[in-house]
Amino acid sequence: MYDLETRKHTLALLEQGLSLNAVSKRTGISRAAIRSWLVRMEPLGYARGRDCPRCGETPGPPEAPAAYAYLLGLYLGDGCVSAGRRGVYSLRIACADAWPGLIDACVEAVRTARPANKVCLVSSPGCQYVTCFSKHWPCLFPQHGPGKKHQREIALEEWQQAVVDAHPWEFVRGLIHSDGCRITNWATRLVQGERKRYEYPRYFFTNLSADILTLYTDTLDRLGVEWKNTNGKNISVARRASVALMDAHVGPKH
Predict the structure, then answer these.
(1) Secondary structure letter of residue 203 according to DSSP
(2) Domain limits at 186?
(3) What tens digit of pLDDT does each residue of 126-184 get?
(4) CA separation (Å) from 26 to 4, 17, 233?
(5) CA 9 to CA 23: how far, in whole Å?
(6) Which residues pair with 219 in a beta bridge?
(7) Nearest partner of 45 among 121, 119, 113, 122, judged by Cα
(8) Which one of 33, 60, 99, 172 has the largest count of C-beta atoms within 10 Å of its C-beta?
(9) What is the spatial distance between Cα 148 and Cα 170, in angstroms, rounded to a whole number?
């Protein structure tokens, strides 16, 4: 971990007109690290994390279960947990630049899950990686592991399922915000010899993991939302009453 003075000196070289590659070669610091300092200067402070609700002698649920249910949906869709140095793990959730409101909501959910840990944005073409370091991400997301999610089993633990059962709409909203969308379909129909165009909204959720799809559809079933699996990896909600339910609790990305 680099101290604040090192970070300031490195960014000063950039301000002098040196390229990112040149500064990286001169200082021995990776380009990825330098790019992240352009977003936030202060060290992340690995030792500042609070106790984890899952690590005590009597493990308990997250302190803000509704926010956790939303974050769980985001993680299952577009998140990953990676091991780092000294037993510290990074949580990264990819959020498209097109949806700044989603980025803000993701940042707030991560801060709620680990309020004593810093949250930063790491830019990548077309998206921002909401990133936070903590020793306790494996406790909060036991689904983490090597390989892609759709190539391994994904199942919720009992305490996670209890959180989802208590806050199902937050979980669904997190899944839609990660791997879903609300679109407007259209069709034409002849009415008294005149062709007219009709538009209707529809929700889609796409994921390669059959386990994650099942978590989504099981939750929709409990909420009374009708759905169809259109091609084995794409869940569609198109019935008017079901779309109205989704609109009331999820809505389009923004």
Answers:
(1) E
(2) 164-249
(3) 999 999 999 999 999 999 988 899 999 999 999 999 999 999 999 999 999 999 999 99
(4) 18, 14, 47
(5) 10
(6) none
(7) 119
(8) 172
(9) 24
